[in-house]
Amino acid sequence: MKLYGVYGASGFGREVMPLLRQQVGNDLEVECVFIDDAGSGETVNSCKCISFEQFRNHPADYRAVTLAIADGGTRRKLAEKCAHAEVDTIDVRAANSIELDGSQIGEGLVMCGFSTITSNAKIGRHFHANIYSYVAHDCVIGDFVTFAPRVMCNGNVHIGDNAYIGTGAIIRQGRPDKPLTIGEGAIVGMGAVVTRDVPPGVTVIGNPAKPLIKD
Ligand code: UDP
């Protein structure tokens, strides 16, 4: 039999589990479980929740996980743990998500309902596209990047590793010779309208988006 694990049994994990179950089908030879380092032993939405140790020692013929935790740094840590344990990852795509032509996408993708990747994007490992978000043509997106619901990322935008783009943010399109760049580890706040480059590690908010000044 095949065993698939949704790592993280909290908010996002509970949104990913039904997508995974729909993707892998209702087959007696397939089981889907949650994996959680805090909540193992429980049942969550009628699915078992087990520890990572139980998952990796399960006698299934094949095992793979999806990392269903919005925080990119946590996904990075868990991806290393899975690689070290020689546990594969599985991509999860909602049945109504859309991918057009010529994109290259790394392992561990999660595409929630109504999300879209248009054409010729290059996307790193463990990218999350939450509901209704999109990546348009020619974008280049790093590893462990997270799009919250309804992020609108227009064409020729480059986003560095571990960046987090908040709900409803709009990112202006760049040009082929001058992409709009959002640096590694940057955070774009909810509803922000990003019209110019965001430096690495900086949080921007508002319209037009400006660095958040903490007092
Ligand atoms: N978690 C885990 N191992 C880790 C970090 C987090 O199992 O190393 C679990 C944590 O116990 C929680 C879930 O992942 O159940 C993350 O939930 P949270 O609400 O923080 O994130 P979200 O579901 O909103 O992405």
UniProtKB/TrEMBL annotation:
GO molecular function, one term: transferase activity
High-level lineage: Bacteria, Pseudomonadati, Pseudomonadota, Alphaproteobacteria, Rhodobacterales
Protein name as it appears in the record: Putative acetyl transferase protein
Keywords for this protein: Transferase
UniProt-listed InterPro entries: AcTrfase_PglD-like, PglD_N, Trans_hexapeptide_repeat, Trimer_LpxA-like_sf
Active site: H137 (proton acceptor)
PglD N-terminal domain mapped to chain residues: 6-81
Residues making up the signal peptide according to the UniProt record: none
Species of origin: Roseovarius nubinhibens (strain ATCC BAA-591 / DSM 15170 / ISM)
